[in-house]
Predict the structure.
Amino acid sequence: MGYPHPLHPKENPVLSKHFGDVEARTFDGWVKRGGYEALRKVLRMTPDAVVEEIKTSGLRGRGGAGFPTGLKWSLMPKADGRPHYLVCNADESEPGTFKDREIMRWTPHQLIEGCAIAAYAIGAERCYIYIRGEFTEPLRIMQQAIDEAIAKGAIGTNVFGSGKRIEMIIHRGAGAYICGEETAMLNSIEGKRGNPRIKPPYPAQAGVFGMPTTINNVETLAAVPHIIMRGGEWYKGLSLSNPKSTGTKLISVCGHIQKPGNYGVTMGTPLKELLYDMCGGMRPGRTLKAVIPGGSSVPIMTAAEAEDCLLDYEGVVAKGSMLGSAGMIVMDDTTDMVYQIWRLARFYAHESCAQCTQCREGTAWSVRILERILAGKGKQEHFQLLLDLSDNMTGKTICVLSDSCAAPIVSGIQKFRHEFEAYIQGAREPAMAGV
Amino acid sequence: MSSGAAGQRGVGAEVSGSHRGVPEHGSAHGGHGTETAPYERVFQGERLNRLQQLFTVYPTKQACLLPALWMVQEARGWISEPAIGEVAEVLGLTPAYVKGVVTFYTMYHTHPVGRHFIQVCTTTPCNICGADDVVKALLEQTGCGELGATSPDGRFTVMEVECLGACGFPTPILVGDDFIEDVTPEKVPGILQRYE
């Protein structure tokens, strides 16, 4: 369901079917809804067969990068005598994205079952679930669910009597967007500052505590039990456009929209159907101006681009942006694009871990230049200066945080230049005091 | 409202000079480091047991640092210099290292805050839905006046926070551990009433 709204007939609520259903939070309630059957089934399969099933499904990482999940699992070394780890990325902090929170607060056992299956497939006996510190409710609900799953023998030292050990530990973050970057997350689990690591080595070779590690997003792992029960071929068949994008995706829709919420849609669904049918369209009397489709880190789309876009990895790229985490920020004609791009830049400047110069300096100076423009003190040279800075912030740092800051700035200047010009030429009242 | 290098991680600029000398129990007496009460250890009794349990779920003691700091903050409301020293000692780390980690993460307080710490999301999705008006209402009605300041009665501290991950429910705020969705300026008085 498009939680918190009733289910729309065009949705495909594979993961979100039980959002809002309090009973589904409990172990027994989840079992009653078919839960933990997939884990029991997996215990009768070989780990390789599980990986193959996920490969067949075409499932790709739902956290933003879209890396094929089965391939990621297959990169883990086999029975090399070292401890293997699974890390579940529940640090959901990407502006516009709020799907993992709903999965954890309504269907914690869906995630626990997915984690257990993934851990089995990659030969891990321990799974760290990294939940951002601000998520007080998901933290509480997940801990209760883990305790209950241990008490029922579904996880722990002897999973459903199979002799398998799969332990789950919640690691609470403490306020840092960058810890959603997978290697920063590993450092944070190790008790360090959340600085991203240089790759290689990749986590599958040397991850948390130097051991082979797989990091998967909450939504990716929550999809796994469904694939196991209904088959990789079934999941692969859920594709309306490009066969490289399979299954369903939870789209978090927010901003200037009638019915913000999380909508489960089949890959390839037209964005227009989501916005105008499922979400009820714009507020009365308003028109669409822009959409940031994949969380704040992706290029901004104009209304025309958005209305012509298909919601899958390739479809959004074809319209000049990225599906990312599918946190969709909708902006109507009341939006001051320059101000909002400044606000995004401020976010990245605040969240930079400050280890790479291009990011530390680039994000901070982008903010200052945008502030000058908003204060009515902008100059024509500022366009080139912002683009030069953005160029230096793209593809030149350890992680992609500064690329993410550059994306809205560059696309904003390309597509909404006239709004910058209005401030620079004094046609628009300054939005902030001088700097 | 400006950001820039001073607001970034790693600079540790939030720890302003005036806060450094405040003793953990001395501030109520109006002392600025003059009446230092003896430091009472955080990790003793039940909390020490909890810490020792943590040693079994991580392969290194260092990995217990974030949970240990959460335990300190839970017990004392903030993380003082002596507490940093104690955490370093129990985990076999240096105080400088622990401080480096404390100042990286925004949720650890490096100075005392009000009894109820309010975090308001003002990132883009909430910003376009009116988060700034919620901030204004909170600052006025708590008596805090400005971001980061504590109200004269010691009840509240209000801070802006970057994306709380509940963008479909603007504006979300955190009051202590209570996550409250759909806050509007009109709802602020009713919410504040619930916190003494």
